[in-house]
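Subject: sequence -> structure tokens, single chain

Hey, anyone have a minute? Need the predicted structure for the following. Not urgent.
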Amino acid sequence: MATGSGPRYAIYYAPEPGSPLDSFGRSWFGDNPAATTTLSTKRIAELSESSRRYGFHGTLKPPFGLNPATTLDSLLNAAHVFARTLSPIEIPPLELAIIGKFIALTPTTQSAALEKLAAACVRAFEAFRVPLSDEQLENYKLNRLTVHQEQMLEHWG
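Reply:
Had a minute. Here:
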């Protein structure tokens, strides 16, 4: 079981440097983030505090402890192999949402292509993940998850 100690790894999407999405993301961490929204500068700072450590990204496989039966090198190799299998997808327009303690851009409508990508990513890296401890599961459940979200959490972390 995971104890919460040690390094954690995740699979993220990051926009192409210099792209409009990259520029937008950088504006949230720049000198005047309030210029992009009606939220107060203080509220943006609160909601983006933890995100500043990671930068602007989309989570494909949430942070996980590395299964001791695997290695970081094997994880990186699997990530390179997985990335080579991907084709570009188009996603619906994005909207600003507050999800728990985080600011997120979320699609305005469902996207089968995006859901397929996310599901493939979660499955492709599942063998690298240490299962969550009972304590970690309970902490996540404090976020008032739906029944489906709880099932996904228990099965996929």
